[in-house]
Amino acid sequence: MAKMTTSNTHEKVSVRLAEILIKLNRGEKLDPHQLAEEFGVTLRTIQRDLLERLAYLPFTKDQHYFILEPYYLGKLSTADIERFASLSGIKALFPALNDSFLRELFDTRISQAYLVKGHHYEDLSDKSGEFKQLEQAIVQHRLIHFIYKGKNYTSIAPYKLVNHKGIWYLAAKDEHQLKTFSFTQLKGIQVIEQGFSPETGINTLIENEDSIWFGETKREVVLKIDHGVAPYFKRRNLLPNQQIDKELEDGSLIVSSRIAHDDQILPLIKYWIPHVSIIAPKELRDTLLELLCHYLRNDEAIK
C-alpha cells in the first residue's frame, strides 16, 4: 500500500472538517458515533475533530450530541467553511495558532485578510506579532511602513497575506503598482493612522492569480512542448495561466502562458529543458540562452 503524503492527509482532514462545519452551520445535532460511521474513521478521530481541531467553536452539548450555539448558526458561507476547515486541519499554518486566534478567524472581516494556496507551510512561530500587525492593517484599511531588502517603503496599502507553495507573501499597493513582498523579509513594520480606500477589483485580481506575481499587465509567452512530456501539460496546468493552443500531428503542443515577470516562467522552462522551447517572445528566448551560456561557462571554469 502506498504511503499517504502529508498533503493527501491534510486534504482528507480538511474535507471531513468542512462537511462537519456545514452540518453545524445548518444547526444539525452531531452524534460522534454516527459521524465516525459516515466518514469511515474511528470514534477517536471524530472526537479529536470536535474536541481539538474544532475546539474553538462555541458548542452546546445535548447529552452526547454537539450543537453550535444559536448566534453562530448560518454565519458561514461555503467559502468560509472550506477556509476554516483547512486552517483547522493544519495548525502549523499560522503562527501561534491557538483557539482564540482561530475564533477571530470566524469573523468574516478577519478571514478576508488571508489567501491560502497549497498545503506545505513555512514556520512563522517567531513572527506572530508582525503577522497580527499586518492582519489588522488589512482589515482596517490602514497604510503601513516597512523596510524590505534594505529599502524603506512608506505609505504602502496592504491588501492580502497570501500563502503560495508554503511561503507567505504580502500583496500590497506601492503608489499605483501592485507588488508582492516576502513576509519573512519585512523589517520594522509600522501600521500608521492614515487609512486608504481599497480599489475595486484588486482582491479579485489577487485571488484569481495562480502565482505570486500580481502584475496588473501581463504578456504572452508561446512555447512548444515535445510529445514525450505533452501528457503532463495536458493533465494539469504547469505554467502560469496556461492555455493549450494547438496539438500537433506528432503529439507535441503549442502552449501559451501569460506572465507578469520573466522569473515567473524561466525556472519552469529550465526545469523542462530540452523538452520545452520558447517560440515567442524573442527577448525571453535570448534571456534564456544567455542564462544557459553563463551556466556552461561557470561549469567549464569549475572543471
Can you give a write-up of this model?
A hairpin with a 2-residue loop joins strand 1 and strand 2 (65-68). This protein is α+β, with helices and mostly antiparallel strands. Helix 1 packs across helix 4 and helix 2 (32-39) packs across helix 3. It contains 11 helices and 12 strands. The strands form 3 sheets. Strands 3, 4, 5, 6, 7 and 8 form a 6-stranded mixed beta sheet that branches. It has a 4-stranded antiparallel beta sheet with strand order 10-11-9-12. A two-stranded antiparallel sheet has the order 1-2. The protein has helices spanning 6-25, 32-39, 43-53, 78-89, 99-105, 108-111, 128-140, 202-208, 230-235, 266-272, 282-302; strands at residues 59-62, 65-68, 114-117, 142-148, 151-164, 167-174, 177-182, 186-195, 219-225, 243-247, 253-259, 276-280. It folds into 3 domains: 6-93, Orthogonal Bundle (Arc Repressor Mutant, subunit A); 114-208, SH3 type barrels (Roll), CATH 2.30.30; 219-302, Lrp/AsnC effector binding domain/regulation of amino acid metabolism (RAM) domain (Alpha-Beta Plaits, 2-Layer Sandwich).
Write out key terms for the chains shown.
Alpha-Beta Plaits, SH3 type barrels, 6-stranded mixed sheet, globular, single chain, alpha+beta, 4-stranded antiparallel sheet, 3 domains, disordered N terminus, 303 residues, Arc Repressor Mutant, subunit A, 11 helices
Short description:
With 303 residues, the protein is of the alpha+beta class.
